[in-house]
Amino acid sequence: MIHLYQAPKTADAPIFLFLHGTGGTEQDLVGLVSLLDSEAGYLSVRGEVSENGMPRFFKRLAEGIFDEEDLALRTARLIQFLRDQAAERSFDLDRLIPVGYSNGANIAANMLFEEALFKQAILLHPMVPRRGVTLPDLSDVRVFIGAGSNDPICPAQETEELSALLKQAGASVDVTWSNYGHQLVMPTIEAATDWLKQ
Ligand code: MLT
Description:
By secondary structure, this protein is an alpha/beta fold. It has 5 helices and 11 strands; from the N terminus they run ββαβββββαβαββαβα. D-malate binds next to α3.
């Protein structure tokens, strides 16, 4: 998979797993590392699906309607890629903290729907990736959700539902709301930075 990697500066610093939104690339979110934790490293991945030239992490049938077969396949491929990277670069997989925006947040959430792979995750404007499934035990997982109260792509009720599903599975979930639609704004990043320090 096309990706960028920067090693963490210290032995116990996290490694952010940056997952971009539709039409983005592996370059998009890497600038956040210095804001979130200047000691941290990152692994930033480009989605393998192209929707009219726009990279994504899985196919969709329409806006907000996901191709669940493709989502399952792409999620498994991404998890395998992460396991391979962890082995190759000699870090523990749960040192990765996904930081996903929009489509990237949706595949990050879906990885957690499959397996408690991470101890922490930052989901920026996510949706519910799948419904009617049993989640794994997420009681050791902390999740930060940054959502838009007036986000036309990820409506507030999706955030509430995702938060409830993660909590039912045992995760600790903190939601921060902004009021700028689907845009990723600095107050959300600042809230995520504070949350990481807690
Ligand atoms: C998705 O397709 O994952 C969501 O609708 C968000 C997006 O537009 O990327």
